[in-house]
Amino acid sequence: MKSASLQYAQRVGGYCDGAGSGEAAVEQLIGFGALYGESAELRNFLASPAVTKEAKHRVIEKLLARVGGSKIVRNFLFVIVDHQRTQRFCRK
Question: Which DSSP symbol is given to 69?
C-alpha cells in the first residue's frame, strides 16, 4: 500500500510532467515543505479546523510567492488543505 504522500506526489508529478513543469513543481513543493517543516505555527494553522479554508488559501498564496510557486502547485496545496490532508502529505 502506497503512503498518502507518495500517492499525492505521483499525481501532481504526473500532471506537471504532462505540462512540462515537473522539475519546477518539485522544487516549489520542496520550498513549501521547508517552510512548513520550520514552523510549528504554520503546521498548527493549516491543521486547525477553526481556521477557514479561505484564510489557509491566503497564507499558502503568500508563502508560495516567497518560493516562486506556480498555479499548479498552489491548486494542489489548496486541495490538500481543503481535504484536511496536510498532516498526511506534509510530514515534518
Answer: -
| pLDDT tens-digit series, residues 10-59 | 666 666 655 556 677 778 888 888 888 899 999 999 988 899 999 999 99
Look-up of cell digits 491566503: 58
Listed as own residue / partner, the contacts of 56-63 with beta carbons closer than 8 Å and 24 or more positions apart are 56/81, 57/81, 60/32, 63/32, 63/35
| 27 HSE (CA, 13 A, CB side) | 9
DSSP state of 83: T
Angle at 66 between CA 64 and CA 69, to 5 degrees: 35
Sole residue written with cell 481556521: 51
Residue 92 — very low, low, confident or very high, per pLDDT cuts 50/70/90? very low
Q: For 49, which DSSP code?
A: T
